Amino acid sequence: MEGLDNSWTYLNTNRDAYFTDLAPGSYAFVVQAESNTGTWTGKERRIFIQILPPFWKSNIAYTLYALMLVAVLYFSIRYYHNYLERKNYNKLMLFEQVKEKEIYQAKIEFFTNIAHEIQTPLTLIMGPIKWVVKQADNLPSIKKSLVLAERNAHRLAELTSQLLDFRKAEADQFGLSFVKADITALLQEQVNNFKQEAIKNGIELSTEFPQGPVIAFVDIEALVKIFTNLLSNAIKYATTNARVVVLPFNLTDEYFVIHFINDGKAITEEFKDRIFEPFFRMRGNEKPGTGIGLSLAKSLADLHSGGISLKSGDADAITFELKLPVRQKIEFKLSSWKKNI
């Protein structure tokens, strides 16, 4: 068998030749017969044999193996490249978050220090202004200017107080005392305080309260700050009207819910999650403000184990929802709060 064994194999009686487990390749089976006279002069006979390799050893298979290897290398390199990109991106995001946090803390520290510095002299200024206003009853033109100065001084005092309260809330140093209070009575009182501002801005301020009172355990000082900021926000950004709606309440309810609604400019999706960020101001917003009112209100609501959310940002129905629990883990019953029971 040429290609396997180049030597002759002599067969005397058993004229069968067996070749097994031939490797893939080309072979030539050669046969020659001995003549009657004992000579090997006859013509050789040849059979050409081609053993094909199995598919997994064929050229096509090796081509597929090569392509698979190239694909594995390509995707491995691509995966590693994407991994490095994600890793670097995460590092960059972490770095930006750290920087944003540092900038935010720097802002807080700066405004808090400024608030501390101006609070005392501002208080000393407001006292003489109030006295001068009372003495200027017979001088209308002067009194008008003094009243304007008093109003602005009072507003500045509120801003400094709000900055300090915000700092306390952010540092979890705003201690709350939860006492039993009539929520609708407290809310109505704050609405009455904003009536004049609403009229001055040409805004119709209305309320919708349930029939019975809504009684819950809250920190009255913190709740008033929440009401004040949400009412101020509703009136500031309203076009023609603002509404305060206390949703129907049952004694078995675990939460009470209040909606503060105005018909101002719609809040787009990109800003819905950012309006509660400290110092955030939407582009194109020309209304005066510090950008911490909603953030402070939300922080105080969170301290009540409740929350504030933007229920709807559509024009004509911008709705902020205040949702607070009726009961708290630690509750006080003080006689000084009896007027709110």
What does this structure look like?
This protein has 6 helices and 9 strands; from the N terminus they run ββααβαββαββααββ. With 341 residues, the protein is of the alpha+beta class. The strands form 3 sheets. The chain has a 5-stranded mixed beta sheet with strand order 4-6-7-9-8, covered by helices on one side. Strands 1-2 form a two-stranded antiparallel sheet. It has a two-stranded antiparallel ribbon with strand order 3-5. Strand 8 and strand 9 form a beta hairpin. Helix 1 (59-135) packs antiparallel against helix 2 (140-170), helix 2 (140-170) crosses helix 6 (293-303) and helix 4 runs antiparallel to helix 6 (293-303).
List the helices and strands and how they pair.
Blueprint lengths: L24 E7 L13 E7 L7 H77 L4 H31 L8 E4 H18 L3 E5 L6 E4 L1 H18 L3 E6 L8 E8 L6 H4 L20 H11 L3 E6 L5 E8 L16
Spatial arrangement of strands, main beta sheet: 4-6-7-9-8
Looking at CATH, the homologous superfamily of the largest domain is Histidine kinase-like ATPase, C-terminal domain
Q: How does the helix and strand content classify structurally?
A: alpha+beta
Q: Helicity level, as a percent range?
A: 40-55%
Assigned CATH architecture of the largest domain: 2-Layer Sandwich
Main β-sheet: number of strands, strand sense, barrel status? 5 strands, mixed
Shape: rod-shaped
> Could you name the ranges where pLDDT drops below 50 across 5 or more consecutive residues?
335-341
CATH class division of the largest domain = Alpha Beta
How many runs of DSSP E, i.e. beta strands? 9
In what range is the share of β-strand residues? 15-25%
Radius of gyration: 44 Å
Whole-number mean pLDDT: 81
Continuous helix count: 6
C-alpha termini separation: 114 Å
